[in-house]
Specification:
The chain is of the alpha/beta class. The protein folds into two domains: 223 residues, Type I PLP-dependent aspartate aminotransferase-like (Major domain) (Aspartate Aminotransferase, domain 2); 134 residues, Aspartate Aminotransferase, domain 1, CATH 3.90.1150.10. Helix content is 40%, strand content 14%. Strands 1-7-6-5-4-2-3 form a seven-stranded mixed sheet, with helices on both faces. Strands 8-9-12-11-10 form a five-stranded mixed sheet. Helix 12 packs parallel to helix 16. The longest helix is centred in the C-terminal third of the chain and has 19 residues. It is globular. It starts with 10 loop residues before the first helix and ends with a helix.
Length: 396
């Protein structure tokens, strides 16, 4: 059983020991339960398990001991009462929204979003009769106007992908609640180490655990967290149980072990990212650097307030000369990988217009601030001088 004192532990201890549920063998490391179904001592016990009279796992699509350990550890880190693990970050985003919405409901979202999130809100949900509206997330007056009438869900990313736009979570939460809605925050870019949206007024938090939570390029995963018991038990749980976006026990075990080092990784990555961003500002071939940790970022002060005084692990910047110059620079890199993931120990770079956001029209990309010259760099834990040397060869 989990330690009864674990909620009082400090963050580093929670990450190593939180949610640990040892079997009768007393294993030191977390166990991996690779099973689909579970056996019962009697037919009566099976009946009681299915109708909820007793606490007994019934099927790994509904629940699994290894998955539960991941959920409990992440909930401790986030400061949430409830966590449900998902197969991927997009499964988490879709389930968080679809489990709560119905035809005729209204969703307002920030315009700067990951391509998959934009598809869910702009294409998938309207197919089922959900009304959607987008606003400039950094403009509080647009939020005030959009939320002057009733809303069911407000969805934001902060920092946003890939422009690193910062949204005032507390202010948007207050406006959302006045309009009768729930605020959903995708916190994948900040990670639970740097930002805890529930403390800022959010109702639901989603993660792509594929990013910083794993952080080592191995498995997919996602999570939904909330303190709203009614939402979790009455809306999300039935949807999750019957639709089947469950996380595999193997992936859950990898993510449990990954949480042990997330604080160390994100801290080092953020330090490197600030150094890289400052360095990029000195290069004549770089037109603009977007990094919340720099004073030049338009929402720098807000970022420092919301993100524990850190700018995060991702730097976006525009290269003089447009797409051709950007491609030429990426192709010259030898240490940094061209890849579309982020939050990894290894530094990686991508060209959003032709990869993560290529499905969007030119007009939609421009509205999000995604130009042909924009590249997104996820900074890893390599030696900072090696990263600077690689960027100098590519951009010098």
């Amino acid at each position: 059983m989990s330690n009864k004192n674990e909620k009082n532990w400090r963050q580093s201890t929670k990450l190593v020991r939180g949610g640990l549920d040892r079997s009768h063998h007393g294993e030191l490391s977390e166990a991996m339960f690779l099973t689909q179904a579970y056996a019962y001592d009697s037919a009566e016990q099976a009946e009681q398990s299915f109708n909820g009279e007793i606490d007994h796992y019934v099927y790994s699509r509904y629940g699994n001991p290894t998955v539960s350990m991941f959920e409990n550890r992440l909930a401790l880190l986030e400061g949430a009462d409830h966590c449900r693990a998902m197969a991927s970050g997009m499964a988490a985003v879709y389930c968080a929204l679809a489990s709560k919405l119905k035809s005729g409901d209204r969703v307002v979202a920030s315009r700067a979003l990951f391509g998959g999130c934009e598809y869910v809100i702009n294409t998938a949900l309207p197919k089922f009769g959900v009304k959607t509206e987008f606003v400039d997330g950094s403009d509080l007056s647009q939020w005030e106007k959009a939320l002057a009438k009733p809303v069911d869900i407000v969805f934001i990313e902060s920092p946003a992908n890939p422009t690193l736009e910062i949204i005032d979570i507390a202010a948007v939460a207050e406006l959302t609640h006045k309009a009768g809605g729930k605020l959903v925050v995708d916190n994948a870019f900040a990670s639970p180490i740097l930002q805890k949206p529930l403390e800022l007024g959010a109702d639901i938090v989603t993660y792509s655990a594929t990013k910083h939570i794993d952080g080592q390029g191995r498995v997919l995963g996602g999570a939904i967290l909330s303190n709203d018991q009614s939402y979790i038990e009455d809306e999300l749980q039935p949807f999750y149980r019957n639709v089947g976006p469950s996380l595999s026990p193997f992936n859950a075990w990898v993510l449990v072990k990954s949480l042990e080092t997330i604080e160390l990784r994100v801290t080092r990555q953020s330090e490197n990212a600030l150094a890289v961003a400052s360095f990029l500002e000195t290069l004549p071939s770089v037109d603009r650097v977007l990094y919340p940790g720099l004073s030049s970022h338009p929402q720098h002060d807000l970022a420092m307030k919301q993100m524990s005084g850190s700018g995060g692990t991702v730097v976006s910047f525009e290269i003089a000369g447009g797409r051709d110059a950007a491609f030429k620079a990426l192709n010259k890199l030898s240490t940094i990988d061209i890849a579309n993931n982020l939050g990894d120990l290894k530094s990686m770079i991508t060209h959003p217009q032709t990869t993560t956001h290529q499905r969007l029209s030119d007009k939609e990309q421009a509205a999000m601030g995604i130009s042909p010259s924009l590249v997104r760099l996820s900074v890893g834990i390599e030696d900072i001088d090696d990263l600077k040397e690689d960027l100098t060869r590519a951009l010098g």
